[in-house]
Amino acid sequence: MAGGPCGGRLHGALLLGIMREAPRKRIQPTGEAGQGPAEANPFLDRVGQWLIAIIATGVVLVVLIQGRFFLIPLAVAILLFSLTSAAIEFIGRMRFGSFYLPNWLASVIAVLLIAAALIALFGLATAQIDTVMVVAPGYAESMQEAVAALFVWLGDDVAQSVLVAFQDINFGAYIRTLAGQAGNLLVATVLVILYVGFLFAERPWFAAKIAALFPERRRAEDVDRIVKSIGRNVHHYILVKTAVSAGTAVVVYLFLSFVGADFAETLAILSFVLNFIPNIGSIVATILPALVALVQFEGWTMPLIVLLSVGGIQFVIGNVIDPMLMGRALHLSSFAIILSLTFWGAIWGIVGMFLAVPIMVIVMIVCSHVPQLRPIAILLSREGRIGEKRAGPGDGRE
Questions:
Q1: Which residue, 101, 167, 348, 350, is most buried by CB atoms nearer than 10 A?
Q2: In terms of DSSP H, where are the helices of 150-205?
Q3: Are 364 and 373 in contact (CB under 8 A)?
Q4: Taking the CB of residue 250, how many other CB atoms lie within 10 A of it?
Q5: Which of 289, 257, 292 is nearest to 271 (CA)?
Q6: Pairwise CA distance, residues 364 & 381, whole Å
Q7: Which residues pair with 381 in a beta bridge?
Q8: Is 294 within 8 Å of 303 (Cβ atoms)?
Q9: Residues 204-216: tens digit of each pLDDT
Q10: What tens digit of pLDDT does each residue of 286-315 get?
């Protein structure tokens, strides 16, 4: 009994001390028995990364499609804001003696001018839609017969089959759907004006927000360089395209008015709008006047004259004057442009096709500044040479 209660407590204390002094061994996951810690499987890691990328891409696509009601006006507003901001900065640097225009006043004037321009464009679009709706039913029937006549040389049976196929198309339903889009166009116009107004209200704090987002000075300078590069290239593209499209529309209007074609004003406006869609737009803008001439005039002489003349105008301006003014600022791949048109056209419709090239320019410039994404920029470029090279830390060059 020598070991009584005191002995038990002594043994307990000794056991507790030994447990405290004993080294704690780290428990590591093991693979097979006796083979040590399990190693990561590179294949499984790569598969997991690809799965995450696929899921993220699906989520982005769903957001782009389901949110197009407000994303499209937002994209247009950002584009207009970027163009107008550059003009405001230029005006703000101008001095007329002791007089200068304050930034806040220039911003207010810019918002008012944008609102007035958008409302005027909306009024012009609705007026043209009303004109088309009045005369379209009669023209649709005549155009069906005229298009079917194009296939007479293949045989009467073929021409009759084409006519029946065209008669099955309910052009009236499409025209009514187009007219019904006027309400959506008005809502989109109002949203664009609101977005632009609030963007101008936030404009004085953009620089402070970038500095707060990127506290490191070199990183902030790189971001600022990327933003300026995007603005410079997009501005150049939009301004050149606007000037070239306006010139094309004026020449087309003068020619169609000279030959006495119907809808000269409407076709000129469509030519202006469609020229913002690369490659495809100019083709459509050439075919439409020829179809109108085919319905309006007897015989094939005048439709061929209209087709060749408008096609020549589009060819000369699009392949000679446009590249001369555009220069090598964008040097985008033609195949990549077609893919971008197809993708954004499927996501956002006609408006997406207008925004396809500016979005592609932004993607290429951002990718060219990120080493991991530089191969994407090379694929998007025409000759594999990236004009905007990524600046290293502390490098002030572009």
A1: 348
A2: 156-167, 171-202
A3: no
A4: 13
A5: 289
A6: 8
A7: 332
A8: yes
A9: 788 788 888 888 8
A10: 988 988 888 888 777 888 999 999 999 988
